Amino acid sequence: MRRYILISLLLTLSLMGHSQKYLTKIAEVSCSCLENISDSAQPAQINMEMGLCIIDAAMPYKKQLLKDHEIDLELIDQYGEKLGRLVGVKLASVCPATLVKVTRLTQKKEQLPKETYSDIQIVSGKITKIGQDQFVVFSLKDEMNKVSKYYWLEGIESDFDMVSGYADLLDKEVSITYETMEFFDPNIEVYRQFKVIKELSVQE
């Protein structure tokens, strides 16, 4: 009886050793791939590339992963997180410096203000109103007859004398490059989006 127990234990240890070897290989290939991720990539892109690195490295061992860890790479949407956790443990021992670098890069970008990733857009239309409350606000009717407000909060690049002649823009056709930014509105006590003017040109 003891002999059978010993044989079973040795067989289990042998299988565990084999599992550790191919997991280490997956981690090594993943590490090489992670080193090629650009420092300028956005957080979503970094996470996607990390996932692709691990999946590509694991593909040659999909039969072993299914047998040993019940991870089906044909159903990666269901098992991707489990694969990431499994390989992640190995990454920490195979290439800790690379893993820390990529993680810090992702965290650093995620902590930047939302304004950094604001959307730059261009709109053309007619200035229908110019508000002069705390800031100068231009109401513009676009080609779809939709009226939106655009805020003058900072220096504007323009071929027009904005400082002394902005009032003359009323009823003129203009093109506005703007950035959507989020600020706290104390009047309603919530954050809301403002279309902040970056450039303005008068259409002849």
Distance between the termini: 97 Å
Q: What quaternary form is this?
A: single chain
The biggest beta sheet, please?
Answer: 6 strands, mixed
Structural class computed from helices and strand pairing: alpha+beta
Structural notes for this entry:
- With 204 residues, this protein is α+β, with helices and mostly antiparallel strands.
- It has 2 domains: 2-112, no CATH class; 115-202, OB fold (Dihydrolipoamide Acetyltransferase, E2P) (Beta Barrel), CATH 2.40.50.
- It has 6 helices and 6 strands.
- Strands 3-2-1-5-6-4 form a 6-stranded mixed beta sheet, with no helix packed on it.
- A hairpin with a 3-residue loop joins strand 1 and strand 2.
- The longest helix is centred in the first third of the chain and has 33 residues, at 2-34.
